[in-house]
Amino acid sequence: MQDAPVEKLYRQANLLALFTIFYNIIEGVASVWFGASDETLSLFGFGVDSFIEVVSAIGVWHMLRRIRMNEGETRDEFERAALRITGWCFHILAGALLLTAAVNFSLQHKPQTTVWGIIISCLSMSFMWFLIHFKTRIGHALGSAALLADAACSKACLYLSLVLLAASLGYELTGIGSLDSLGALAIGYLAYSEGKEALQKARGLGCGCCSCTDSDKER
Question: What span, in angstroms and rounded, lies between the C-alpha atoms of 65 and 86?
Fold first, then answer.
């Protein structure tokens, strides 16, 4: 049976995982809604990315439940399936953003406004900083490579928020419509990288977001 301090840390980690799931759902809904209504491709892509992150976060939450039952940090089939779904969804998103950005470039499309991109990206960075800080602290306290890797996943989301902020603020300051498409391309590239990493982990080959163990590296 786990002692009280360790059990308390796992409860905190579980709450952080649940918060990540529900926050990404809310962020995804808001980003897709405002991205579509304001014709802001970077914000829309950011929102779809948030929905994909939900699948990955559910895999982490499932992993934490298993660790608390002392079944170790090795991945089970549920987590591998979540990683495969996440990986392919990221690849599809990257392809869609590439095609849409190319069309927007050719049509010299401009979004109506990117103010919501600025607001949502700033909020996202605040929440990601919170998640990174506490996930890292708990991961170190428990000596858990899986929890530390989950903190790294939140850091990747922070980079996406920075890209969205740069594209949205750049457009509002300059009125150059291509900045929105460039931001979408950058988000697409990051999504592709995350998708590739997720598929590698599903095959037991990589280490990064979500759960990662020494046994995974050796396969």
Answer: 20
pLDDT single digits (tens) 58-89: 888 888 888 777 666 666 677 788 888 888 99
Whole-model pTM?
0.83
pLDDT per residue as tens digits for the range 86-109: 889 999 999 999 999 998 888 888
Q: For helices 4-37 and 115-142, what crossing angle results, to 10°? A: 160
Cβ–Cβ under 8 Å, residues 187 and 163? yes
With b for 16 or more beta-carbon neighbours within 10 A and e for fewer, the 32-43 pattern comes to: bebbeebbbbbb
Residue from 127, 125, 124, 138 nearest 64 by CA: 138
> Going by C-beta distance under 8 Å and a sequence separation of 6 or more, which residues neighbour residue 32?
44, 47, 48, 51
Q: Which domains does the chain have, with CATH numbers?
A: 4-208 (1.20.1510)
Largest CA-CA distance found in the chain, in angstroms, rounded: 63
d(CA 176, CA 178): 6
Q: What is the dihedral of CA 162, 191, 196, 60, to 10 degrees?
A: 80
